[in-house]
Amino acid sequence: MPVYSEKVMDHFMHPRNVGEIENADGVGEVGNPVCGDMMTFYIKVKDGRLEDVKYKTFGCGAAIAVSSMVSEMAKGATIEEAQKITPESVAKMLEGLPKQKFHCSNLGAQALNKAIDDYLIKTGKLKADDSKCCPFCDHEDRENDPVCQQGCQVNISEAKTS
Amino acid sequence: MTKVYLDHSAAAPLLPEVREAMMPYLGMDFGNPLSLHDWGDAPRDALEEARVQVAALIGAANPEEVIFTASGTESNNFAIKGLALAQQNKGKHIVISAIEHFSVMNSAKFMEKLGYEVSEVPVDKNGLVDPENVGKAIRPDTVLVSIMHANGEVGTIQPLAEISKITKEKKVVLHTDAVATCGAIPVSVKELGVDALSLAGNPFYGPKGSAALWVRRGVRILPLMDGGIQEGGRRAGTEDIAAIIGMGKAAQIAARDLVERGQKLTQIRDQLINGLPAKIPHVVVTGDLVKRLPGHASFCVEFIEGEAMLMMLNSQGVAVSSGSSCTSRALKASHVLLAMGYNHEIAQGSLLFTMGIQNKPEDIDHVLNVMPPIVERLREMSPVYSKFIKANKGGQ
Question: What residues of chain B lie within 8 A of the CB of A38, using their CB?
């Protein structure tokens, strides 16, 4: 059996929406070359909808397929809808990801969310402090968990007050 | 579609002559070499013939110094643990290089749990160990030095004969993992001056599951497998006769064809090593250009990641491997490239081509044709590359 699903291979070999957006309304960058994957998402917002979504990705087949799928899921969605995209829903749409790829390569939803936060902060709709991303690493803190469970494990509320 | 297999370090095909030599031992000659009745005769004779053939490949004077095992990994485990444990009253310090195979590194780590200390000798940018550094790492309580003959990931061949001068002078046992070199370049345990040497059958077109550890007569080793008297009591367990016969036959053919194979493989290796950086900018050849395995070409392609290249090459019928984090199940970048001083970003773009005797210059032409558009496509997608382009434009 091949390592990747047909859907992953399709998005990897034919990635959708690759590129950058000049004067993007929001930009979100996650990952680093140490872990092997980096993604930068660009969004253009019009009337509360993501009119355009583009990205650039450094990484393996899974990372590229994830970026492509996230861009497809987010393009045309409202901000609220796009914020609901999770690593789990992306993996599901891709008909599964290999176990060891799930955490390291599945950064698309985080990158998109970071780009949305960037837009919301720029437009004054969100205070930098209320960003849904962990301030100490690139992982999301969606559930308002005081500890960044998925990423750096820092206790965010404690670290912020100290 | 053109299919080009360039991943011989992962798996090599069995030679037809080798398969043929193995067949009787998968059929009517199924007997146990230890048996005293007639069924034991043919397997016993064949086993000892294979031992002679393997000994001849590595220039060993005494065939009984060859202990058959089931993998290069087992041979390395046996060497590190068995040689160190046999000398535990003398000392508990082991010296290895920073770019050893995991079977050596992790065996050394295991010995740390038993109270041994391990020193790692660094390598230079080309992956070469400086013999002087080996000398410096040796202490009065050092009982074992293990330096690989050649590295499978970057192809660099170590100056073992110089290293053995030092270990002999300091009276320390020297083991070498020669899995990558046996059958690929001339290997003589006498000229190398080593005390123990690991080799495996598959790299020279023998069967998987065939391997050996050569231990010079007079060097003590503690068995890891306790049981019967097979392999002189040093490795108990009923022998996989077919695999051993296959390894012997493959060793015999390798010894015969060594020079011819080497010349052919060096030629197509250099075709790729010279061709790829000429066709694609920002490609680094990893490892030493001269002290290098024939049939071994390794690169780091900057700004992109190895697994993505590997997958795209596969879609063009080309099989290769990579040392990037994403291709390793452990999700760690190659310890070899990091030890050579490459940063994580470049190490992620690692790509390894290992050629075999069936490869032809046309196979390399195919790679040189399909590779540039793949790299271009992935670079267009890469945020690292766009940052590089922007930074360069700003600088001009």
Answer: 383-384
